[in-house]
Amino acid sequence: MSNKWFSPLVMGMCLGVGASQGVNAAQAPAPAAPALAPAPLAVPVSINALMVTLIDHSAHHVWDHQALERDLSDEEWRMVEYFAIQLAAAGPLIALGGEGPQDTAWAADPRWRAMAQALSSAALVTMDAAKTKNKELLSSAADTLLVACESCHSVFKPSSPTEGFVHQPEYDHLYHLFRPAE
Ligand code: HEC
Fold it and tell me: Which atom of ligand 1 is nearest to the CA of 148?
């Protein structure tokens, strides 16, 4: 499992040291280990699970607040900023792969990385809108966010989720904060 994180670059650097000194690596004393960046931690959950519990959840807080046809309170702007921060971090997170059956292949695809970056960028604009309490900017950021979701789904999302986690009904109680009481 940990092998997959052993970077070819690091291996190349180790080999390079021996070659440039012209020594037989088998006889030479082991060189002092260079200070290596630690291997990234493996993401222990699936992209399917993160989509539903983190990304979809946070995005609905943004969209629900954006849809309010009145000014937002300071507390509401704080909520928008809070969930935008989660979305901004979620982009790089899903670029690390995960435990789901397709996650490693998805994360290795350059289109995936670009779309994960687009998600993060839309979230950063949402954060700016929250910091400056700018409803117009929030509205366009929310639209850009939706495009980021849909453009990736149109390329990558299978017709039924790999692990069966869907938007509804399991997590529906987490958002739609402003739904009228039934
Ligand atoms: C970089 C690509 C990518 C981006 C960006 C992305 N998704 Fe996903 N999403 C996927 C993939 C792939 C799946 C299917 C995962 C699986 O089945 O293992 C998925 C699954 C989901 C699911 C669960 C499956 C379902 O049909 O209900 C939800 C909900 C979801 N995404 C919401 C969102 C929302 C909301 C956004 C934007 C805020 C978003 N996604 C952005 C790729 C992406």
Answer: 5
